[in-house]
Amino acid sequence: MGERGAGGSERLRNTLTLPDSIKLMIFGGCNTATSYLGRGNDYTLPRVAVFSKGVDAAVGWTAVVGWPEMDTWTQAFFQYNGTFFNSAVYAENQTMAMYGTYSGTDSSVWYGNWNLYVRPAGYGN
Amino acid sequence: MKKKRFTQMAAVGVVGSALVLLLAGAAMAGTKPQAPAVPADPYRAVKVTPASAIAAVRAMVERPLPQNGAANVAARAQVAEVQTSDLKANAPIDGKVFRFYDVEGADVSAAVDAHDGHVAQLLVMSRIPKVRTDATINDQQALDIASSYLVDQGIAVDGMTAQVKLDDRGAALVYSVSWQRSVNGALVPDSRLVQLDAGTGVIFNVHNISRPYSDPPTAVVARDQAISVAQDTATKSVGRKSATYKLIDASLQVTFDSQGTQGLVWQVKLYAADLANSTGYFEVTVDAMTGSASVTGRG
Asked: B160: which of B140, B179, B232, B272 fits an S-S bond (Cβ 3.0–4.6 Å)?
């Protein structure tokens, strides 16, 4: 997702209905946790997902993230048996070890209950 | 988009060179073609046992956290002892810079250089912040804590300039204190990182990335030239004749290929503002000596 992906927060806020049973939404792309058109953090995708749509936890990124590094991050995140935030930091380290760069993957910002567990999915709620 | 797609040209070049060597070898030997010796990266030769890798992680963990600075002493006193009895070293993995053991336990995730045995990464899970708190330390205090920790661990940062960054990760406010060595204007594989909770000053993540290198030569391709080449390469890679780019970053870096051959490249990061879809991010690697370029990352 490119920089324009941040505009999705407007659509998410105004139109999309989400089931409140969602444990985690990952907005895996560039600047998905960056505020849209200077409207402040209320309009970032993960924040809208948590505070307007009832998702338990959500994450976006505040920088440009690159592939294939983001693939490694995603694989490592779901592989690790820890809380969402612990798994995210673990996945960042794995990405750095593999590629010698974070490539933006270390810019994730977490909203909601980031102490839920990746496996079993949503454990700790 | 996968990296594989953009490395096909380079692969053809390597195969072509190998073929030439093969033919030359056949001519010299007379009758029997001699397969060319393939010099694997000597720094990727595994010289460290799994047990030694685990021992290195244990030794690093068991040294006490630094007690200087104005960090939250009460919070630091409550830091539990790190559990290392369950550590296991997985088979060595090839990273871009070096080969490493992934040493894992319930409380620890570490990477140990399989060639020289140094701990390249140490992440202590129980020390990652679980509760977001306001920052109680400032940039200078974060630098002091991080520096003191590295001194205690015998990890040198001489000749490097420190950068201190406070990141709001939502889950926590995190200080990242980093050091990166540059030689002749190029980033070389020699860097450090210490991450700590800005609320408590407790360190939870340390990187010590390094491998031997030769001082890089002066780049033949200037930065502006590299950016221009990168833009052309990105444009052609998506079948366009033109595009308007925003430069995100362009840095000169020492690299190593899978054979251990040292190179010097410009790593150029671009964002195409006018592409029709939303996949406008490109990472282009431009050889700083020859100007050859390929797209090595997308977003």
From this structure: B179
